[in-house]
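#dry-run=false #mode=assembly
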Amino acid sequence: MTWINVLLQGVLLGGFYALLACGLSLMFGVMRIINLAHGDIAVVGAYLVWVIVNQTSISPFLAALIVLPVMWIAGYAMYVLLLERSRRAGQLVPLLTTFGLAIVIENVLLQVFSPDVHSLGSTAGGLATASATFGGVSISALGSLTFGTAVIVLAALQLFLSRTNAGREMRATAQDPDAAQLVGINARAVYARATAIAVAIAALGGIFLAIRSTFDPSTGPTQLIFAFEAVVIGGFGSPWGTLLGGVVLGVAQVVGEQINPQYAILFGHLVFLAVLASPRGGILARRAGEA
Amino acid sequence: MIHTRSAQLAGGFHVQRWTRLSVGSGVATLALIAFLVIVPFLFGADVTQQLTTLLILVILAVMWNALAGYGGLISVGQQAFIGLGAYGTIFLTQHGITPYLAMIVAGLIAGVIALPTSLIMLRLRGGQFAIGMWVVAEVFGILVSLDSSLGGGTGISLNGLDQYAPGYRQAYTFWLTLACATLLLGLVFLLLRRRIGASLQAVRDDEDAAASLGVNVVRSKRVLFVVAAAGCGIAGALYLANTLFIQTPSVFGVQWTAYMLFMVLVGGLGTFEGPILGAIIFYLIQTQFGDSGAWYFVGLGGVAIAFALFLPNGIWGAIDRRLHLRLLPVGYTLRTAAAPPPAVAGDAAGKPPPLAMEDQP
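#status=ok
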């Protein structure tokens, strides 16, 4: 029964990783940019909610309704001010500038909020600790909510990309930006929109991070690595691939933790490296490089 | 082997590697190295220690630039090898090898470990390689911290150097650092001047086009990856010798990448001389503002972004473009027979702005 619990816990954790990962995956899919500040952006979302909750003592979910639009706009600004020029300067420049941005964000947070560790767990009205038990299998309320949110976000993203005009424009631009421009799509606007969506979803992931555990200014890089691992394990494909990748990563970490708490993160990394080392990993990497 | 050699081309053009200026600066470089050898006799231990730090930064910057500026491989995880070099030294000294020998061996071991690592990592391109390397660094860091004989996560001191009096120790460490820096920079210099240097730049600029011209893409990258890993490993070992104490979170920390990125971007990505200049600038900034805490890092990140966007070839690239300064020539200079000062200067290997690649693969 322990192992069923462990597996379930891992699957639910995977939902959280998928939520963190889908913005990263979207930006890579649409513009071939891997945003090295992705994890730090998630942490910014967490801090903004924390500030609002501290000032007004409203529920963090209510605060999220204010923070997500703000992050959406911040995403637009990030594209216009930083990524547009980086993208034009060459393939590798976005890596340099987003890594620079990551350093700036982390240290501004450090300067403004101090290295103190915070959590929103206690402000979520007992949600962080609540759980239901069915015949010895316990399901945490927060884990289920996170997983459900991830599924909804991924489904919405899928619907947006396949059913709406803006989504079709985004897919067309991802396939061939020049051809898309020829048929009258404003690629710049599409890229800015994709960045805004990615940043807002990252912030949502950050808010869930803050509720389910703790955060401080240096939390971002780890979240970036987990998100990236989920994307790679899932295979750079559909949103559902990202969910699968997140689940595999989550289960690996939880199984590792069960064996020895020090192994949790290590097991996740090893599964990621094993996927890369497998013949399939080579194909995935090549496909992602060509696409 | 410094001699002026030029090849006559049709139309009165000369292709030249060593111009008179670069012969002069090559000689000056050798003189500078000779002068650095006697530094410990002339100055106190603190100057020697600071110069050791500077030389370690030079090694790191040159290695990172070799990967990013010539190989197109932006790594966020070179601290993997810095850490291996440092902890490898600890491990070897625990097993009875004298510290200074252990540092060299540990650096070479880092290079050996890079070989299997490259089998997985070089499948990745661009941003995937960048973060993939970061994961590798995390894995090495976790594995080292799990080993309690290496101090676990709490840190460990290098023993065995206390057999030397502090002044002598500082001098020996400095000489070893100087020798390693000279050898490693010389190795990278020679490597980039050979056929593989041109191959690598072709791969950096367009991997598929290079492959279709018969460049062995994976082999070229692997050679560079292993050399850069060994260089970072030796730098890590020397860093340990200079500080005598290390902890896993800091020696495997991503701040190393921030430093390397800053030095290379400010000095000049894809130029041989630039990273050396960048290391000197970074060293001066660090001694001035290193105590200002978080704002110091905000400044580093901001400046790195500005250089990446507005001056992608760094300070040295800008100087080179205006004055055609090529002090340590990796490429070639094209000059017309008529005009003595070079009318056109460019690398025969093609020296486009290093990162100006096609947007879409």
